[in-house]
């Protein structure tokens, strides 16, 4: 079974984090070799993640103590700013800092790009998703032998107890009727 682009939208994050089985990883890599659109998405996400990780490492070396605290405030409030959840005073501070700081502008742009990719991916798959789309995709693409139905030991003991009680009850009822 080949992977579709809609399935790749879900699997890219699992692939980047290394959370796929060997079989599924190979299928994703094959799709990335053959599909330029998915490869471009993968490259964008991978680049943004590397840039973000790099920005955390270089913050201390680039900024003075004052700038460092402002940048920390910027990072702490970035998600709320993007979601329009900040009070207007805080929002203005973030805007001013972003205008004056190239690294902050890049991080804000990356955040908007990630948000756009996530929204586009969600819109594509929303109509198809009845339950948990990620689990359905992985279940469809993974070989059956990779998943086995296992029960928690407590459930096994409880099931054995219930069966024992039912069998003993049946024996008692049967012996009383004789």
Question: Could you explain how this protein is built, in words?
Answer:
This protein is mainly α. The protein folds into two domains: 5-147, no CATH class; 150-178. The chain is built from eight helices and no strands. Helix 3 runs antiparallel to helix 6 (102-126). The radius of gyration is 26 Å and the shape is elongated.
What labels would you give this structure?
178 residues, mainly alpha, 2 domains, 80% helix
- How many domains make up the coordinates? 2
Average pLDDT, rounded to a whole number, is 78
Number of helices: 8
Nearest-angstrom radius of gyration?
A: 26 Å
What is the element string, with H for helices and E for strands?
HHHHHHHH
Number of strands: 0
Strand content: under 5%
In summary, what is this structure?
By secondary structure, this protein is mainly alpha-helical. The protein has helices at residues 5-17, 22-34, 36-62, 65-82, 88-100, 102-126, 133-141, 153-177. It folds into two domains: 5-147, no CATH class; 150-178.
Strand-helix topology:
Blueprint: H1 5-17, H2 22-34, H3 36-62, H4 65-82, H5 88-100, H6 102-126, H7 133-141, H8 153-177
Helix pairs in contact: 1-3, 2-3, 3-6, 4-5, 4-6, 5-6
